[in-house]
Design goal:
The protein is mainly alpha-helical and about 775 residues long. Among the domains are: about 1-70, Tetratricopeptide repeat domain (Serine Threonine Protein Phosphatase 5, Tetratricopeptide repeat, Alpha Horseshoe); about 660-740, Tetratricopeptide repeat domain (Serine Threonine Protein Phosphatase 5, Tetratricopeptide repeat, Alpha Horseshoe), CATH 1.25.40.10. It has 39 helices and no strands. It has helices spanning about 1-15, 20-35, 40-50, 55-60, 70-80, 85-95, 105-110, 115-130, 135-145, 150-160, 170-180, 185-210, 230-235, 245-250, 255-260, 295-300, 310-335, 340-350, 375-435, 440-445, 450-455, 455-470, 470-485, 495-500, 505-520, 525-535, 540-555, 560-570, 575-585, 590-605, 610-620, 625-640, 640-655, 660-670, 675-690, 695-705, 710-725, 730-735, 745-755. It starts with a helix and ends in a 28-residue tail after the last helix. Residues about 180-200, about 205-285, about 295-320, about 335-375, about 735-740 and about 745-784 have low confidence and may be disordered.
Length: about 775
């Protein structure tokens, strides 16, 4: 019965590989109706799943008792996971175990056999979605240990913040991969058919070799091509046979050997073979070599490409060729007079002409008196042809085997070693990026060869590194290169739209949103780009609708929830913004942008303790982000921890000495601590970095007021008003008449500044109140 299922499976797999799912399902249903067993049930469920009918596959497997088959168990668990039945998927994978906490991973691996790595990966995904990250990490590590080429498991571990030793990508993994590919489960249904084909080829070769040793009259009339049954076997098995086996089975016949030599339009040139001495003439040589410069060969009897011979031999051949030419002229002059001897004269002339010599082949002219009768000559020539063909085929096959062994083995090992090295480099770079050690990640990514660096995956991660470092210009250039080389690639381009939002490049952002929407309207990145474009044009309501659409298309996207929360924060919908940020944290606990968004809301609500807690969580994820450290310092200052806040600001400036936001808050904090000269020094440096920021001159006015420099105080206040004539920074007007008070009013202004320059990717704040967007100026520039 299994033979019947295997024979039908060949056609079903052929339909699937040619994307003909309708016929594959129809044939699988007919087989299931005819033979209801484990194999036909699993085959139909698998066909349903590959065609996208996950519910059909789930119900078929759930209502059939084939869960004892490892492949069927894995497919059922996969169906449950895809339709969000996580508890049921976990119970299917665990089997008799009551809970995942009591399961032993070694026993789990034994139960699932060859599917253990994929079953562990699926179990880890279930644990990750149900917030059991420690167990998920264990399962991911175990699956990666079984099959180190499960890159998604490695990425998941990096996403969870785990560090994995990249030495797991080593040469020993190739052996395990080969053992998986050569397991009996993979090739059992089709191994016998290939053996039959190869044995039939051997039979044909033996029969041909045997028949060639017989005389012509006694040979059976035999076809050189295989029988139709052989063609049918090859057609049926072509779908499930490795390409190397197919080529081996085809080229094992003489026709296959010759066809491989004659590919690409080249002419076949046989090896050098010396014929037997008893052949008087070669009227129809089997496969004559290609003649080059025939006139030169006929006159002088040598070839430049042949092996070197002595000078005496060349002189002898030249004399013999001259004699033959003179005899040919005499014979031609007597043709018209004596027609009866025309044919013999022609044959004699042809014999006396020296034939073009081959390498290691010398054919001496023989007189007509020594030639036997016509019948004997044909028999000997044909017998020689068959023997020459047999020997040529043997030489060709031996030569091809030697070339394959000498060329393919080093090439394959070199490719494998290159792939392993690239795995190590990419894995180490991804770990640095997941820990937000972006500069180290950039060094590793740039050390990769160009052919691997110019792939979408590597370019996208390299651009993300610059994006997290707030180097938006370089990030934009890499994203633009990615769009030029791979215009069909959309995944991850929502970050590109945020980069363009920070650069205020409305034309490029609108173009990107239009192109992504035209390419794939149902991709979440397209709607995120549209939302950013609308937000840049201050159409916040429409931007919110675009981000909601992105969430509908990708409910697991924490970044889409973060963007939506930022939009709600702009229109002071703080409760809705808080809900979006918390959802993003639930989906990705390592999203520092979401933690920062929650903290900024608490800071606006003057809940400073809660704000400090969430800022601390954000800085623990991204330790080298100076803006997050600056926000934490502001929250700690409001909690009456000014000394700790000042230390944090100094640490942030060590990371980025020209960070305008950190310098501004440090100057304000020094002013509050009545360290006026230090504050003035910081503000003078800040004025060189941000020469057009009105709040800088406002703070300079207050410092000079405390230092009794009233004329400087009025001058800087005037410049501050000139840079903000419309009063966009309302805090300036509110604090104008409080210059002599304790600087609580100033610190309240610092809170608003902090919320306006938040480092959430799409904070969409007004540019006139943000110090983050000011580019450093040259030190020689002066404010007039």
């Amino acid at each position: 019965m299994s033979v019947t299922v295997d024979s039908v499976r060949v056609y079903i797999n052929q339909f699937i590989q040619n994307f003909d799912y309708v016929d594959a399902i129809f044939l699988a249903e007919r087989l299931y109706a005819e033979v209801k067993n484990d194999e036909s049930t699993y085959l139909l469920a698998r066909t349903y799943y590959l065609s996208g009918d996950i519910n059909k596959s789930y119900w078929l497997l759930r209502h059939s008792s084939i869960e004892h088959v490892p492949t069927a168990k894995l497919l059922l668990a996969k169906c449950c996971f895809d339709i969000d039945k996580l508890h049921e998927a976990e119970s299917v994978l665990l089997g008799n175990c009551s809970s995942i906490s009591t399961v032993v991973l070694d026993d789990f691996t034994t139960d699932h056999g060859d599917q253990a790595a994929f079953a562990l990966q699926l179990l880890a995904k279930i644990c990750e979605k149900s917030d059991r990250h420690q167990k998920a990490s264990e399962c991911y590590r175990k699956s990666l240990k079984i099959n180190p080429f499960l890159w998604s498991s490695f990425e998941a571990l990096c996403r969870l913040g785990e560090r994995v030793d990249t030495s797991i990508f080593c040469s020993s993994t190739i052996k395990s991969a080969r053992s998986i590919s050569e397991s009996p489960i993979c090739i059992t249904p089709y191994a016998e058919s290939i053996k039959d084909i190869q044995s039939e080829n051997q039979t044909i070769e033996n029969s041909i070799n045997t028949s060639t040793s017989l005389p012509i009259k006694e040979r059976p009339q035999q076809r050189l091509f295989p029988a139709p049954a052989y063609v049918m076997k090859l057609t049926d098995s072509i779908l499930n046979v490795d390409s190397a086996n197919i080529s081996a089975s085809i080229t094992s016949t003489p026709i296959g050997l010759l066809s491989e030599q004659l590919q690409d339009g080249d002419k076949y040139t046989p090896p050098t073979i010396k014929p037997p001495d008893n052949i008087p003439t070669l009227r129809n040589p089997p496969l004559a070599p290609k003649r080059q410069n025939t006139r030169m060969l006929q006159q002088y009897g040598f070839d430049d490409t042949s092996t070197p011979i002595s000078t005496a031999t060349l002189i002898h051949k030249h004399d013999m060729a001259s004699t033959s030419i003179s005899e040919a002229k005499k014979t031609a002059s007597t043709r018209k007079e004596n027609k009866s001897i025309r044919a013999p004269t022609k044959r004699t002339t042809r014999i006396t002409k020296p034939r073009p010599p081959c390498a290691d082949m010398s054919i001496t002219p023989i007189s007509s008196s020594e030639s036997p009768n016509k019948m004997t000559t044909r028999s000997q020539v044909r017998s020689s042809n068959t023997s020459l063909n047999s020997s040529m085929e043997t030489d060709i096959s031996n030569k091809r085997e030697r070339q394959k062994k000498s060329q393919s083995t080093p090439r394959i090992s070199e490719i494998i070693e290159n792939i392993i090295n690239v795995f190590k480099l990419l894995g180490q770079g991804l770990q640095y990026l997941s820990q937000f050690e972006c500069r180290q990640a950039i060094e590793l990514f740039e050390s990769i060869s160009l052919k691997h660096l110019n792939t979408p995956w590597a370019l996208l991660r390299l651009a993300n590194c610059y994006y997290h470092l707030h180097d938006y210009q370089k990030s934009s250039l890499i994203y633009r290169e990615l769009r030029t080389k791979y215009p069909y690639h959309i995944d991850g381009l929502e970050y590109y739209s945020t980069v363009l939002w920070h650069l205020k490049d409305d034309i490029a952002l609108a173009t990107l949103a239009h192109e992504l929407t035209e390419t794939d309207r149902k991709h979440p990145a397209s709607w995120c780009a549209s939302g950013n474009c609308l937000s840049l044009n201050h159409e916040y309501d429409k931007a919110i609708q675009a981000f909601k659409r992105a969430i509908q298309l990708a409910p697991e996207s924490d970044y889409a929830y973060t963007l939506l929360g930022n939009e709600y924060s702009l229109i002071d919908e703080l409760e809705r913004a808080m809900a979006c940020f918390r959802k993003a944290i639930q989906l990705n606990p390592r999203s520092y942008k979401a933690w920062n968004g929650v903290a900024m809301i608490y800071l606006k609500q003057e809940k400073f303790q809660s704000a400090a807690f969430h800022f601390t969580k954000a800085t623990s994820i991204y330790r080298t982000n100076p803006d997050l450290i600056c926000h934490l310092a502001v929250a700690q200052h409001k909690c009456n921890q000014s000394a700790d806040a000042l230390a944090l600001l100094n640490d942030a400036l060590k990371i980025d000495s020209k960070n305008a936001l950190c310098k501004f808050h440090k100057a304000g904090l020094l002013l509050h601590l009545e360290r006026y000269h230090e504050a003035l020094s910081e503000l003078e440096e800040l004025r060189q970095i941000a020469p057009k920021e009105s709040l800088v001159y406002y703070l300079l006015s207050k410092v000079h007021r405390h230092l009794k420099n009233f004329h400087y105080s009025y001058m800087y206040m005037s410049w501050s008003m000139d840079l903000d004539p419309k009063g966009a920074n309302n805090q300036l007007k509110e604090n104008a008449d409080k210059l002599y008070s304790k600087d609580e009013d100033l610190l309240l202004g610092m809170e608003d500044i902090a919320s306006s320059v938040t480092e959430d990717d799409n904070s969409q704040m007004q540019s006139q109140s943000s110090l983050q967007d000011i580019q450093p100026m040259d030190s020689s520039e002066e404010i007039l």
